[in-house]
UniProtKB/TrEMBL annotation:
It is found in: Nucleus. Residues 642-710 form the R3H domain. Belongs to the NFX1 family. This is Transcriptional repressor NF-X1. SUPFAM superfamilies: R3H domain, RING/U-box. Residues 726-755 are annotated as: Disordered. One of its GO terms (molecular function) is RNA polymerase II transcription regulatory region sequence-specific DNA binding. Residues 11-68 form the PHD-type domain. GO terms for cellular component: nucleus. InterPro entries: NFX1_fam, R3H_dom, R3H_dom_sf, R3H_NF-X1, Zinc_finger_PHD-type_CS, Znf_NFX1, Znf_PHD-finger, Znf_RING. It holds the Pfam family zf-NF-X1. GO terms for biological process: negative regulation of transcription by RNA polymerase II. It comes from Pterocles burchelli. Keywords: DNA-binding, Metal-binding, Nucleus, Phosphoprotein, Repeat, Repressor, Transcription, Transcription regulation, Transferase, Ubl conjugation pathway, Zinc, Zinc-finger.
Amino acid sequence: GSLIEQLTTEKYECMVCCEVVRIVAPVWSCQNCYHVFHLNCIKKWARSPASQAEDGNSGWRCPACQNASTQVPKTYTCFCGKVHNPEWNRNEIPHSCGELCGKKRQCLDCPHLCNILCHPGPCPSCPAFVTKTCECGQTSHSVRCGQSTKIHCSSVCGNTLNCGKHSCTQVCHAGKCSPCQLTVQQVCYCGNNFKEVLCGTKEELFDGFGNFSCQKICGKKLNCGRHNCTQICHPQPCQLCPRLPQVVYRCPCGQTPLSKLLELGCVERKICTDPIPSCGKTCGKPLSCGSYEFIHTCESLCHEGDCRPCSHTSNIYCRCGFKKKVSVKSLTMVTAAITFMCDKRCNKKRSCGRHKCNEVCCVDTEHKCSLVCGRKLNCGLHRCEEPCHRGSCQMCWQTSFDELTCYCGESVIYPPVPCGTQPPECKKTCTRPHDCDHPVYHSCHSEEKCPPCTYLTQKWCMGKHELRSNIPCHLTDISCGLRCNQMLKCGMHKCKRICHKGECLIDEECKQPCVIPRLYCNHPCMAPCHPSSPCPTTSCCAKVRYPKKIHCKFTGKLIAAISIATKLTDLQLGDSVEISRLITKKEIKQARLQCDEECLALQRNRRLAEALEIDDHSDPFNVRSSGPKYSDFLKEDARKDFKFVSDVEKEMRMLVEAVNKGKHTKKSHCYPPMNRDHRRIIHELAQVYGIESVSYDNEPKRNVVITAVKGKSICPSNTLTSVLDKEMQSRPPPPIPHYKQTDKSIGNSGLSKPFKEEPVIDYFDVQD
């Protein structure tokens, strides 16, 4: 009815072209699913490669039901197939002939044809009434012809079962009766063994005495009445006695007929127990011990019965054919060929290509691997349970029938879900609980742990030296790069480590040099830190200008040392002190230094300066007052690596000019990783330029970052490189020493000016 309505109103669409099927267009209807198509469309579809069946020999497939057909439709017929090119009539169904359908109905047992007008779709069920019997055939009922239900009565079936002896005891049922379930006892053919089986089992094998073979020697008396049957249990009857005179025609070895032996005078045999005449020749029957190449034969004279054991020996191979040979008696040749195996292990690869055969005396040709593969499948959860094989394993066959969702549940993969499928990707913001209250910027994810929070915050460094800005939230241990400077447990020194976490000294003691001034010379003790004990009495190793650097050895003459210590205040005020009264002439002679080349050079320079009237504080070349003061160590390093210092100064000058001319108050520059000496040069030059310098990272990738601040950083008038260039060009005389008396006048007139102790500059990188 639906097909008729859609075809009449022209609302039915062809599945091939998706166009409406007109009432005057030639069509074709599938006899399996009854879909209607344009005739031209179905012709094109049948010729296309996409319509071909999978086996390639079944023809083309219907676009709707995939039913295979061998013939391609060529003509336009009505639905019942009687009329070709039916004409359209307004009062009839489109594409029908208007006559009775007449097709056979789908019911197999219905003999009536369809009695309605030509129509699309399947024929309706048959309306006729017929008389049908029940399944057992004992009762009958009147039902519709098209009714497919079976009729059952309440009577017992009673049909004969498969055994032919008993009847069916079930109530009226469909199909064949079940086999007889009664058990009977059957006997074998020879009559020696019995077994219980279901009634009717192997009835066709019954020979009148037994039903089966027990696979043992028959043992029945033969027709001769003297010998027993030696065959395996068999159906009746047994064979003739093999020793009957009418059966035996030759001697025991088979070489000579008995007729010839009778002519030679042998006694004729009357019964089966009479001996068979011997021809007197060598038996020559092949024995079971030989091989294909060398066949051993019986060497006894023609005889009855089995042949004697072979007396020969043979060289045999193991079953794998290895060259090792073993010589055994031919009697045991058969068993040796079965049991003998060499000790050689097979080194060939198995069929999987992964394992070795490793069998002893192997005779296998394929070397199939019997191990389980065990490799992980593509899902990463299960392992391959197939026998070990070559190539990649198959896809994991396990499937989940639960929905697979992301963490928040917005994205869903509907079942079936193959094993190993990752959760769907979700673009929603992550909804998991986080440790901080900062905004979440990452998407929903399937991992248990969220990515670290990268929100920029302010955090104190580990040593609480400064509050650092722009620090990601997830970073906890932050080092500012400055020295710790926390007071140690000794109460005298501060920690010199870079800003660190935890205690400064956990299980260690302070080993920094003691700074308590000595009793007699006021120099620091310099012994390893000893907070709970007095300073040890050792010789002072500090260097003083006297006028040459010598070691202070206040180890004796305590009275003179104490007197000199009381005059130190006058020395610091610039007054002269007479020490000849404090030290004896013998001690002065022992303490006087011998003049060397340096002393002679100083005397010569002093005389030259007095002759030219040059003051030791004057600066004739404007070297001291024309720019910043660079330390001697810095100059010495600059002379060793002039290009590096020049590049550093150039970068600092450009950085200072850029920050002074630009809008920003600060500008930074990061140097590449370098060694400790180069970092020290950068730190000292940064102090001259008024630039902040900090070292970061650990060795060997420790680098320096300099920051210029507007209004604070300056470009000096004379750079270090220019100062070195001027010194190289001018080569001025060495500076005049700060005393006017020779070594000889020291002991006579005393010190005219106080000697300044040369400062010992610690170039240890503080930021490092």
